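Appendix B, example 12.
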Amino acid sequence: MRRLLTFMVGLVMLLTGCSTEVADYKQQQPSLDIFHYFQGKTEAWGMVQDRSGKQIRRFHVTIDGDVLGDTLTLNERFIYDDGEKQQRVWHIRRTGPDRYEGTAGDIDGVATGQAAGNAFHWRYSMNVNAKGSTWLLHFDDWMYLQDGTHLFNKTEMKKFGITVGTVTLFFTRHEQ
């Protein structure tokens, strides 16, 4: 019994020790201000991988961003490698220092985000169509600003707490 208890305590410590907080990046530069980065035109290239790591889709995104007061509107247009096209319009509102909330048509509820240093952590639930069914997946996005032009994004998609896939994106900001 004692061995089992020791094992369980060790497992919990290992798992909680691996969690990352956005505040861990507060000293990293350059600092990411999503309103500044996404103002104007941005392009991204990405892929979707299943839970085994197999690439199942590739895509290109063009993004037009507009800031008005405390709201960033992102008009995203996706083109997938199979020819499918999608559009998503985000309305992201600054709710406090380094805190954000956002909505979009296929987002269930309100997305929440926080920035620190070169990182932005964004969480939301999205209705995703796959193989003729619609699935409510939970997205855990991490964005990292490399320099004034390039941004990396890694996303875990979860269902019932289990990672079912990942999305990786590489953004390029066009000079305004």
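The two ends are 64 Å apart (CA to CA). The longest helix spans residues 2-17.
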